[in-house]
UniProtKB/TrEMBL annotation:
Gene3D superfamilies: Vaccinia Virus protein VP39. GO terms for biological process: methylation. This is Class I SAM-dependent methyltransferase. The keyword Methyltransferase applies. Residues 60-149 form the Methyltransferase domain. It comes from Actinomadura rubrisoli.
């Protein structure tokens, strides 16, 4: 799973026993050499799905990490591109990789923008927020967008209960819950706390008009349904 340039088992253990912010500060120099970085295939599929809705003006990557989402924003946005994250270490890596973008350190549950962007994206971040925290996150993105602006992020289809992947994710979430029950600071990272319908409901409650489109580049499951969908949350004009 990890390249020779990636973190050691010891480094991963230290990260897992830290807070989310400090854990990512520690992991940042080697993050792009781990499976946790958003895969290029998912970035390309998202860009392809968004292209018919563009071009856009200014773009925002919410929970940007080391800046992989710029591969989606830059080809689609004619204006400035900005990434926001609360990990100073991840932002430092992002600045080195994408010096032509703007980077802002902030807690995305309290985004410091108002009516500043036409497109916002996010990749792999929802698991870092408990369900009770999503309304503040989505309200902040809504506020950051201009009227008519679009918030887009991919979400995978749930694996069937008969698959190994289903039980692996269930086991991971169970381990994280036990860890957070007995160890402080907590490290919030769950895979099964953001089902599509619950996310749609929270987006609608924040004021968005919500649709989805299949990420056809990712293929289909055995039953013919898409492996992933792009959630499209539009701030009304």
């Amino acid at each position: 799973m990890f390249s020779p340039q990636g973190p050691s088992v010891r480094e991963l253990v230290v990260q897992a026993l830290s807070s989310v912010e400090h854990g990512y500060d520690l992991l940042a120099p080697k993050f792009d050499h781990t499976p946790f970085r958003t895969p290029d295939g998912l970035l390309c599929a998202t860009a392809d799905a968004l292209r018919p809705f563009g071009p856009f003006g200014d773009g925002l990557d919410v929970c940007c990490g080391t800046g992989a989402g710029m591969r989606v924003l830059k080809p689609l946005c004619r204006g400035r591109t900005t990434g926001v994250d609360f990990s100073a270490g991840m932002l430092a890596q992002a600045r080195r990789t994408h010096p032509d973008a703007e980077w802002e350190r902030a807690d995305v549950r309290d985004l410091p923008f108002t009516g500043a962007f036409d497109l916002a994206v996010s990749f792999g971040a929802l698991g870092h927020f408990l369900p009770a925290e999503r309304p503040a996150l989505f309200a902040g993105v809504f506020r950051a967008l201009r009227p008519g602006g679009l918030f887009a992020f991919p979400i995978g289809a749930p694996p069937p209960i008969t698959s190994t992947w289903y039980w692996a994710l269930l086991g991971f979430d169970a381990v994280m819950r036990v860890r957070n029950a007995v160890w402080r600071p907590s490290f919030v990272m769950y895979y099964r706390t953001c089902p599509l319908q619950a996310v749609r409901d929270d987006l609608a409650a924040a004021g968005f008009t919500v649709t989805t489109t299949p990420l056809t580049d990712l293929g289909q499951r055995a039953d013919g349904s898409p492996r992933g969908r792009l959630v499209l949350a539009r701030r009304p004009s």
